[in-house]
Amino acid sequence: MISVEQALAQVLSLAPAPRGERVPLDQAWGRILLEPAVSRMTQPPFDASAMDGYAIRAADIGQTLRVVGEAAAGHPYAGKAAPGVAVRIFTGAPVPAGFDRVIMQENVARDADSITITDPSGTANIRPAGDDFREGHRLEAGRKLSAADIALLAAMNVPVVTVARRARVAILAGGDELVPPGVAPGPGQIISSNDLAIAGLVRQAGADPHILPIARDTEDSLRAGFAAAQGSDLLVTIGGASVGDHDLIGKVSADLGLQRAFYRVAMRPGKPLMAGTLGDIPMLGLPGNPVSAMVCAILFVQPIIAATQGWSFERPLRKARLAADLPAEGNRQHYLRARLTDGPDLPVIQPFPSQDSARLSLMAQADALLVRPAGDPPRLAGDIVEYLSLTG
Ligand SMILES: Nc1nc2c(c(=O)[nH]1)N[C@H]1C(S)=C(S)[C@@H](COP(=O)(O)OP(=O)(O)OC[C@H]3O[C@@H](n4cnc5c(N)ncnc54)[C@H](O)[C@@H]3O)O[C@H]1N2
Ligand code: MOO
C-alpha cells in the first residue's frame, strides 16, 4: 500500500499535456484559459463621465455658466472647454477636452441655457482613461474563466480565447448484479449508481463524461468495455478491483498491457484503487463500493482531469472543531462522511455514526469529509481537525 500523497503524485504524473482549442467568448465560461489573453483596448478609452449632469471647469465654480452643447454616450461633443461655459453630459459620454468636473444634475439649477451650481461638493465624477485597465493588460493562463473574466475579455476586445479542450472521460462500471436505473432488477440485482456519481464529479472538474454500457463479470465483456474507451483521454473503471473471484479488472487490464503505477492505497474507504496507463490512456480503477468510488474520484479523478486541462483543482484542507470524541485511527488515512454546523470560532464537524462505504444516503447528506491521518491518536470533542468540503 502507498500513501494518499504518493498515489496522487503518481496519478498526476500520468496526466497528458493539455491541448488547446479556440472558442468564442460565449462558449468560454467555465473553461480553463490555456494561453494568456492580451488587451487590445484601454478602458475606459477616454475620460468618461460617471454621472448625468454638466461638464464644467472647477475654476468656474461660483459663476453662472452658459450651456454650449451636449455629450451623450456614443455621441462625443466636438468642442472644447472655455471659461464660463458648460456642456450637458450623460453617464458614459467622453468628457470634452479642458473640463475637469462633472456636476450631477441634481446639484444644478437650470434656466434656459444657463446653469448655477447649487452644491459644488463631491468628487470630479470623471473616470480617467485607463482607470480600469490599459492596452496590453494580461489575463494569465491557468484560470477557470468566470463570468467576470468573460466580461473583462470582451471589454479587452479579445473575442476568441484559447482554452483547454475538455477531457473526454470514459466511465466503465462492471458487475453481473448491475442494471441501469429504470430497469426492474432481477434476483440479486441492484441499480447501478456509481457511474452516474462519477459522471457528475467528472463534469464538476470540467470534463465530458461518457458512460459506457455496464460490463458483465466476464473477461470478454470487460475487453469490449476497454475497447469502447479507445479515443478517450481518461478511462475510469468502477468495481471489480478487489480480490474476489469475479474481480477481473486487474487481470483484464494487465492482459491488455496496463502499465500499472500502483494498486492499493492506505486510505479508508478506497483501498483497492489502481492506476496506470493502457496504451496511451491513463486508467484509474476505482473500487465498487459507492462511497469508496466517490471518495477516490474526489481525491484522484478530479485532480487528474484538472491537470489534463492545465488547471489545479485541489480542495483545500480546512479546519473545524470536533463535535464528539473519536477513537484512534488504524493504518489508513480515513475520510469520514460528516456534517458541518456553525461554531463560535471554527465550524463544528460531526461525523456520521455509520461510516459504511456502501451507504449512499449518508454520502448524500454529507457536506464534508473529515480527514484523519493514519495512526491518528484518539481525539476529543473540541479538538481542531481537518476536513475537505464537499459543497465547494
Ligand atoms: N477479501 C477481501 N474482500 C474485500 C476487500 C479486501 O481487501 N479483501 N476489500 C473490500 C473493499 S475495501 C472494497 S471497497 C470492495 C471493493 O470491491 P470491488 O472494487 O471489487 O467492487 P465490487 O466487488 O465489484 O463491488 C463492491 C460493492 O459495490 C457495489 N457496486 C459495484 N459497482 C456498482 C455500481 N456501478 N453502482 C452501485 N453499486 C455498485 C457492488 O454491488 C458491491 O456491493 O471490496 C471489499 N472486499
Ligand atoms: O474502500 Mo473499501 O471502501 O474501504 O469499502
Automatic annotation (TrEMBL):
Known cofactor(s): Mg(2+)
Reaction(s) the record says it catalyses: adenylyl-molybdopterin + molybdate = Mo-molybdopterin + AMP + H(+)
Family: Belongs to the MoeA family.
Recorded GO CC terms: cytosol
MF terms (GO), sorted A to Z: metal ion binding; molybdopterin molybdotransferase activity
Protein name per UniProt: Molybdopterin molybdenumtransferase
Pfam families: MoCF_biosynth, MoeA_C, MoeA_N
Recorded metabolic or biological pathway in which this protein acts: Cofactor biosynthesis; molybdopterin biosynthesis
